[in-house]
Specification:
2 copies of one chain form a homodimer. Chain A has about 260 residues and is α/β, with parallel strands linked by helices. Chain A has 7 helices and 11 strands. A 6-stranded parallel β-sheet of chain A has the order 8-7-6-10-9-11, sandwiched between helices. The longest helix of chain A has 18 residues. Chain A is globular and about 60 Å long.
């Protein structure tokens, strides 16, 4: 069934309104008519099955048939911090990460980042990334659109680590066959120490094409991150985020891992 | 370190030869010179560290310094069968699937496939997909290039299922919130029944954008497949293969899951 994410103010007690692109999509692309049903969500707490009252290309009103529970959001809130990759790879990370179940995305700057970051373009890029997250969340039938945070400096990223219950830093020291801990070991060690946390906030940090420097790994570790590896094959930067997120959610009992 | 996959006949007891695109890449792009080292693999059993003797844009000869063990291939040989998706999504599945560790790829036809398959283009597409697999295997430091099998009809796919120790069919009956078994449950049930298989051959079957029909699911189940789900969020077809492969390898002890 079609889903739309709408702002909280488009909800009233008994009705909802679609406006802008969503109204156009419902009226013109889906050719929705009175009585047709779809699902709306405010992206946070409210999700409802609604039936169309009136539809035009600028405004669709619908009455709430039933409030729905939140049954598609993971218990673990995993934020994916990705050092800015080349080209449009960040778009792939956000689209796939949203489908898989990321809670939020933090693009950040690191020493060996290959791209030249253009601050003037930041607002536009974040707007575009947010749109990709919204569309992917609708398609994946999620009740929540992951937030795209503004670009963090390395210092800001390190500082933000204290907001999380667990921070995993994907890293393999160059030329070493001995990798960091695996995800499973890292989670088991953390659970043994922290006890049962019902909805843990986890930060998963992924380097860009150039990887991290030893100094960055040392600083992350000093700030409380656990260094982890994702196995014996070398994953491209955009693959590492998708795979790391999948493994973490699988280990938490999602993705068929229960 | 740079890797090249070469044909078995380019190996002799003490030397190897790069020809064609690989020679051009080594001589012109990497500007390799006598004494420089790189790794070659025949994509199956032999992987060697070599040192360049002579390099030109058409022929690079190098002596074998050391034969290397196979330490990057997964124990589980997982073949990803993907119903032909739209556009260039199959390329993404093959690139990411190769990085993650797929053993082979089987594109196949199913009832609700959205694309019109063009048999005349098949040879060219398989050539292109094989090139993508080779490049991804080199980049991921794999010792083996996954095979791309020719397009299978639904009947051929069903018939091929007897070649595998375990067949997982990703499926969610429409409108049902109760999904198939999770990957973990399916693996545990299979292990309990089959005992320890050291290098199991597994077939993971993924539908295209239109999904599978109930009849296809019934036929797959009748032929021995286990129906599995990948969690509560709806994954795009190209995401399902990447996620399913990651979960299976993680469950087998790869990707940091040991």
């Amino acid at each position: 069934m079609q889903r739309y994410f709408i702002a909280a103010e488009q909800f009233s007690d008994s009705e909802i309104r679609l406006i802008g692109d969503d109204a156009h999509h419902a009226a013109r692309v889906m050719r929705t008519k009175p009585g047709d049903k779809f699902i709306v969500s405010d992206g946070e707490s409210r999700t409802a099955l609604v039936a169309v009252l009136e539809a035009s290309a600028t405004l669709v009103t619908a009455e709430i048939v039933e409030m729905l529970g939140n049954d598609s959001e993971p218990k673990w809130a995993i934020t994916l911090a990705q050092s800015l990759p080349k080209g449009d790879k960040m778009e792939l990370v956000i689209q796939k990460g949203t489908e898989i179940g990321a809670y939020a995305f933090v693009p950040f700057q690191s020493e060996r980042m290959v791209v030249q970051y253009d601050a003037k373009k930041e607002a536009k890029r974040i707007e575009r990334w947010s749109k990709i997250a919204k569309e992917a969340a609708e398609q994946a039938h999620r009740n929540r659109v992951p937030a795209i945070e503004p670009l963090h400096s390395w210092r800001e990223l390190i500082k933000s680590m204290s907001n999380y219950d667990l921070v995993l830093f994907c890293y393999e020291r160059e030329g070493h066959l001995a990798h960091g801990r695996g995800v499973r070991t890292a989670i088991n060690e953390w659970t043994a120490q922290a006890g049962e946390v019902s909805s843990p906030k986890v930060l998963l940090i992924i380097g860009s094409e150039g990887g991290f420097t030893d100094r960055e790994a040392d600083e992350a570790e000093a700030a409380g991150a656990v260094l982890v590896g994702l196995g014996r094959r070398i994953l491209r930067t955009e693959t590492a985020g998708i795979v790391g997120l999948t493994c973490l959610l699988y280990e938490s009992g999602e993705m068929g891992g229960a």
